[in-house]
């Protein structure tokens, strides 16, 4: 399975890159923290080398030994996995659900640093995320320019034109999800050219396209919206870099076109899956745009900083997003987060990992309805914007998956296909 190759090849590669990153920063740690920094770097590397060895030799998954706030939840989850195995031995790296051990690896990487001050706040993936952003400059400029031109006459657009622009920006945000560093094990995955030119040609690759449903939900919410009620859209973010910029542009469009009154962004509270967005990445990206020497890029950055100051945009992170649980357990494990999401008119879940957690990462029949696969996770109407990079997919028409499979055996993991998949949460 694709899961097997991920654990066998991709995860050890990622760990090797993390170790290499720490090695390369040794002098910087020394300059900042003296011998203490170098000692911490050595301890972190030895912790990570041991982790890589456990993974490659299929050792049992061990309880977390750190004192971080989520450790107890992780260890309870390990007990749950032990009970699932019906006494067939301890859950190990190759004998466990893929989603669980993959999340577990990133949590252990976090522990390697968190337990080793003074380098405990070092993000081992930060360089890669920054590089992805800089290498996507052309695409970022093209997108910011397109968007600023659009803003000039947004008030004069009729409904049909607004709908068309929403669909364009949803697609840019969808295909922006191709820029994923955990998928390429940290190899370059930046967006080199303007994504807007190829949208028309990409339509056939959207296997489930519920953009019309999103449009009618937003338009009806806008029409019903009296002064008292607030149309809030939440974006559960995936990757930093170009994808994040495409999400910010979409969010700005929703507010500028008055389809939404406010947008809440949800990022990760710790470095995760190589390129996932943290609070630092979010703020850093807006700062980079602000200070860019390109007029429309800096205009975007300045406006977005303004949206945050005015509270029209809100950034939050929650421990739940970096737990191994699928979203059907959110109401039980993180009732505060579930209650917050219930206040939203629309939840946009970006990317493949969120899709795996929405559907429990199971090997579903392709035709199982999305609503059913969500397993009672319905805090609000929700939509997944996802390019396929793992072998779970639901909600297809009869024969659709089999037909693609016949000519493209790798279709579920290549990132070539996408879905804009909606559930009304009724």
Q: Whole-number average pLDDT?
A: 95
Count of helical stretches: 18
N-to-C terminal Cα separation, in Å? 35 Å
Return the string of H and E elements. Answer: HHHHHHHHHEHEHEHHEHHEHHEHE
* Annotation, overall tally of beta strands: 7
Oligomeric state of the chains? Answer: single chain
Number of domains: 2
Strand content: 5-15%
Helix proportion range? 40-55%
Which structural category do the helix and sheet elements fall into?
Answer: alpha/beta
- The outline comes out as globular
Radius of gyration: 21 Å
List the uncertain runs. Answer: none
Strand arrangement in the largest pleated sheet: 1-7-6-5-2-3-4
Describe the structure.
By secondary structure, this protein is an alpha/beta fold. It has a 7-stranded mixed β-sheet. Strand 2, helix 11 and strand 3 form a beta-alpha-beta unit. It folds into 2 domains: 114 residues, Transcription Elongation Factor S-II, Chain A, CATH 1.20.930; 299 residues, no CATH class. The two termini are 35 Å apart.
